[in-house]
Amino acid sequence: MPKPSGFQFKRPQQLAALLLLLLLLQCLWAFHRQTLTSRDYDFARCGREMWEKPNPLAGYFTTCGNLPDGTLAYRVAGLPLTLQRILAGQNADTSTWEMRHELGYVLLLLHSGFLLTGVFLGGALWWVTRRLYGNTGGFIALALYCFSPAVIRACTYPNNEILAAFGLFASLYTAMGVAHAMQGPPRKWRSRIVLLTVTLAFTAAAHVAAFLLAFLLSIGFMAYLAVGRRAYIVPIMMTACIGTLILVFASYDFSPDAFSYFVRSGAGRVWFSLQPARLWFLSPTNSAVSLAAATALLLYLPTRRSRYFGNTVPLLLAALFFTLVTPGISSEPTLWALPFLLTFIAGVFADFLETRYRRVFLAVTASLLLLEAVVSILSLP
Q1: Do the Cβ atoms of 170 and 124 come closer than 8 Å?
Q2: Which residues of 120-135 are buried (b: 16+ CB within 10 A; e: fewer)?
Q3: Cβ-count burial 31-40 (b if 16+ within 10 Å, e if not)
Q4: How far apart are CA 13 and CA 139, in angstroms?
Q5: How far apart (Å, rounded) are the C-alpha atoms in residues 156 and 215?
Q6: Coil, helix or strand for 345?
Q7: Mean pLDDT of the chain
């Protein structure tokens, strides 16, 4: 199958856009049923202070104090409100509570950045799985993603988890792209190295532990893939790391005191436990993905045609993140693991849909997708 070149918006892209639109509609339905919470007000206040009046207190970045879970979610929550206030000509002292009485869409503005990140993550998942496994794999992964209650929930409240999930997925597959590009002329490396720097910075601003894992895993994948060019890995990753730290420093408005908390907060500590995976896979809302994952694993283990790099890497990454815990801060690494798990499922299912058992697997796949859609709709508020 020839690789698509350049941007196209033909039937596959149109169907992918339709699935992402269905995700958007489910999230808008959830917004319609939501009310502003104390968490919303906290994220809005902290985020607006970062954009409008940072460093009001000595030793602190905002009146919220030191933020151990990254600045990105606060900035994402606060930016639409800051822009709206400026465009509406409102006073800088206008609080989110006052905006609530003047506007009917404050909640949508506050949550819009997280919804867009979820849509971008879905687009990235489809792009990666389509290039790896063709249209069939791309649509299996995207359909499971767009009807995932865990994804819909993460898109509809202020949190760093959906941001970290997007950053991790984008960083690791960009690192693999850099490694493949290293087999060609250096002029083809630059854009990918810049993209890797941006995605690592995005991840770091969302969650320190996610950034550390993304950085180390990127080095590992590049060392495995960049055969004959491994000497270039150190300067490339040093460049990406320096660029990342500069961008994260900028997210703290170049305040050394505030930035120092990025490295001393303890949010980067990680440990491992089977409990998160057990709870996630036994949850009724995740039943379709759990069944699909079990089926894919049972097919993967004894089948040589499925045990290749493109399937094995997402399986290992999903296993890593599903067993990850962060003792220094509350987080949801199971959400970070989900795109990699869906990539693995899509790869194995796409392989078996090309065998003589195609009809059977079409029926199995359709049943699982239907179950996922039903569970998703029933889980909506």
Answers
A1: yes
A2: ebbbbbbebbbebbbb
A3: beeeeeeeeb
A4: 10
A5: 28
A6: helix
A7: 90
Q: Are 21 and 27 in contact (CB under 8 A)?
A: no
What one-letter code names the amino acid at 32? H
How far apart CA 256 and CA 260 sit, in angstroms, is 6
Read off the tokens for 307.
């045990």
In the chain, the amino acid numbered 14 is Q
262-to-133, 238, 268 alpha-carbon distances in Å: 38, 19, 9
pLDDT for 168 equals 97
Q: What is the pLDDT of residue 2?
A: 44
Q: Return the pLDDT at 143.
A: 97
| pLDDT tens digits, 37-64 | 999 988 988 898 889 876 555 556 677 7
Residue 179 main-chain phi, psi, to 5 deg = -60, -40
Tens digits of residue pLDDT in 171-224: 999 999 999 999 888 888 889 999 999 999 999 999 999 999 999 999 999 999
Sign (positive/negative) of CA torsion 201, 240, 199, 6? Answer: positive
346 in Cβ contact with 299 (< 8 Å):
no
- Supply 125's token pair: 């998942």
Least confident span in 64-73, 146-155, 264-273: 64-73
Answering whether pTM is above 0.90, one says yes
Helix orientation angle between 106-146 and 11-33, rounded to the nearest 10 degrees: 130
17: Cα separation from own chain's centroid: 18
Going by C-alpha positions, the residue among 96, 149, 115, 119 that lies closest to residue 31 is 115
More confident: 133 or 56 = 133
CA distance 168 to 202: 9
At which residue do the structure tokens 């709870």 appear?
A: 279
More confident call, 183 vs 97: 183
- List the structure tokens of 202: 């995005």
C-beta neighbour count of 330 within 10 angstroms? 9
**Beta partners for residue 324, in sequence order:** 272
**Quick check: 13 and 131 in contact, CB under 8 A?**
no
d(CA 112, CA 80): 8
Q: What is the pLDDT of residue 259?
A: 83
Other Cβ atoms less than 10 A from the Cβ of 60: the count is 17
Pull the structure tokens for residue 186.
Answer: 């250096």
CA distances, 356 to each of 361, 362, 364 (Å): 10, 11, 14
